[in-house]
Design brief:
The protein has 286 residues and is α+β, with helices and mostly antiparallel strands. It contains seven helices and ten strands. The protein is elongated and about 55 Å long.
């Protein structure tokens, strides 16, 4: 029944996207990989899905084998199981010394043998911390995720194979995690701008050349965002508490009625499937 609940509850909008989760993963890696979990302190069990009441017992004494990202999820591989973490709208994972004072919304601490704490803070409680002994890829939240846009085989040919039969708009397709994992509203808008593609263009109308341009734009946009620490629009900070700077590089996202940096035409905002889409009508003709 709980697995059905995973599938029925949509994830929150305006949550950290792939670059933000990748930034946190990279920031946590040195502090976590190879370390042993000495204890776990849970102060709030009621997140998007309840934390396993036996989580402390299950992971205490476990060694962290690897840390990886799947879409917008962070996966911690332990010797006997996996932690799957989602940040929701306001969640953060930060590294602290074990003497750091506890904040109001600090819901969970993982104490490591290095005398460091991995602390999960989530004011809105839309995040999730889940444990499974099965391979993480089999978990209902991960099992149906699409291709990773940063893996080597994501290219124009791959994207064309996805788009060629789809009648939905290209913006909606890019945000469909069952097809492509991890691209949210911000980076879909920005990648479409760099590829010169209107967000309402029908996916099946794109030929392989335009798909190649878009695939390159997606990869470049995501990598640039990662290198700048992601986007800090509301609550997002990296594992060391620093904000991201990619929002200073936005070409269209959130810039309704402002001038395009390239051609000085006014940026336009439209609504697609309940989300805001931003584009330059000259650089991205329909």
């Amino acid at each position: 029944m709980l697995f059905l609940n995973y599938l029925k509850q949509p994830l929150a909008k305006n949550m950290p996207e792939l670059p933000e989760v990748e930034t946190i993963k990279r920031g946590l890696a040195d502090s976590m990989i190879g370390r042993t979990i000495l204890s776990v302190k849970i102060r709030q069990y009621k997140l998007r899905w309840p934390i396993d009441p036996h989580l402390e017992h299950k992971i205490t004494g476990e060694k962290v084998i690897a840390l990886r990202r799947r879409g917008k999820y962070l996966v911690t591989d332990l010797k006997k199981g996996h932690l799957i973490i989602h940040l929701g709208m306001s969640g953060t994972l930060r590294v602290f010394d074990d003497s750091t004072a506890i904040g109001k919304h600090d819901h969970l601490d993982i104490h490591l043998d290095s005398r460091k704490i991995i602390r999960f803070c989530d004011p809105r409680r839309f995040g999730a911390i889940l444990f499974t002994v099965e391979p993480a890829e089999f978990h209902p939240l991960l099992a149906h995720l699409g291709i990773e846009p940063l893996q080597p085989d994501f290219n124009g040919e791959t994207l064309f194979s996805i788009t060629k039969t789809k009648k939905t708009s290209i913006k909606q397709l890019l945000m469909n995690s069952h097809l492509i994992a991890g691209i949210g509203n911000i980076y879909a808008n920005e990648a479409l701008f760099y590829a010169g593609i209107h967000p309402a263009a029908i996916s099946a109308s794109l030929d392989q050349k335009r798909c190649s341009s878009l695939a390159d734009s997606i990869s470049a946009t995501l990598m640039k965002a990662i290198n700048l620490g992601g986007s800090s629009l509301r609550d997002f900070v990296s594992s060391d508490g620093k904000k991201g700077y990619f929002q200073q590089e936005y070409q269209v996202y959130g810039r309704n009625k402002q001038l395009c940096h390239t051609c000085k035409t006014s940026i336009i905002m439209i609504r697609q499937n309940g989300r805001s889409s931003f584009f330059c009508p000259r650089c991205q003709p329909f």
